[in-house]
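User: Working on a comparison across species. This one is Rab-GAP TBC domain-containing protein from Centaurea solstitialis. Can you predict its structure so I can line it up against the others?
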Amino acid sequence: MYTTQKKIDLSFEFRPEISILRPSIHARRANIVVKFQDLYGFTVEGNVDDVNILNEVREKVREQGKVWWAMEASKGANWYLQSYASSVALKPSLRFSVLVNAIALKKLIRKGIPPALRPKVWFYLSGAAKKKSTVPDSYYNDLTVAVADKVTPATKQIDHDLPRTFPGHPWLDTPEGHAAVRRVLVGYSFRDSDVGYCQGLNYVAALLLLVMRTEEEAFWMLAVLLENVLVSDCYTDNLSGCHVEQRVFKDLLSKKCPRLSAHLEAIGFDVSLVATEWFLCLFCKSLPSETTMRVWDVLFYEGAQVLFNVALAIFKMNEEQLLMTYYVGDAIKIIQDTTHHLFDPDDLLTVAFEKTSFMTTNLSKQRKKQETAVLAELDQRLRRLNTSKLSA
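Assistant: Here's the predicted structure for Rab-GAP TBC domain-containing protein from Centaurea solstitialis:
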């Protein structure tokens, strides 16, 4: 029977020796589309070039793993936690050591956390472990038992969305997988009634389960994500936080890619057509799984501004193609085709952090400015809706 502490037994579980994908000779000659499973069990469709890229990525994962294990051997198993230590009361030499660790850690995380270490590194560096430590050890088990039979609008929507959460996945799309995702989502909907449940969280929770391997840790990762990492109100009823982030992103795009921004506006393309899903699902429905994991590696360490870096990078990588489009549908197709085939995370993250940099210190001011405008607009919509109901 599945418990919250037992690790998920997945046939595609990451192993130190990652098998090489080998398309048949016929597929290589014909350059036809082939299907294969990635590290997290998702079925991927691509041509042989995509397979070759994934093999290269897997080799990079191996090499990056060696770097992390070397750091663990030389600095200790939990060396990366030292970068979180308060340096105020430390001696100068120790403060320097903490700073060196923080710089090294940031560089390492941007190059990718090995899959075998992700659960532990995410759990501690995101603040999830600290959040869990503030409540009794039985908190999650007690919560899931207490709400198991409750029926609310949130639970009804969760039940409706479960079959649509990564359909065809060898574990998520099973009764056991559905039950695990449901317990995490229902539990959180009662922990935070302001959020309850919002479509998009089903995909996030499912992917967290695949990485963390236990329901309880996936639950706390979801909690720290919604309560500390992301901006507030992203998943509330009116999605005001998500609207704010999209407006901030639109402003950033106009500053970093002014020619592209003007062209997209001229053809009637609004960034929300693609960015809504990006910000609500944190790219996990748009990018291949390992690329998503690499984005989340940085997200859990550096914060929500990373989502802007990645979104800007996607537009930047497609700038020339998008400038030649005249129809909204064509622009959407270019972006979607690109994101679905970004199998090499380094291609995306190199652009995200080296070619689309911006002043993160200004984000809070931009968010505050946009929040005022968004709340005023939402209030106006609500007034119009109430007026139309009264006149009906």
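For your comparison, note: The chain is about 65% helix and 0% strand.

User: Helpful, thanks.
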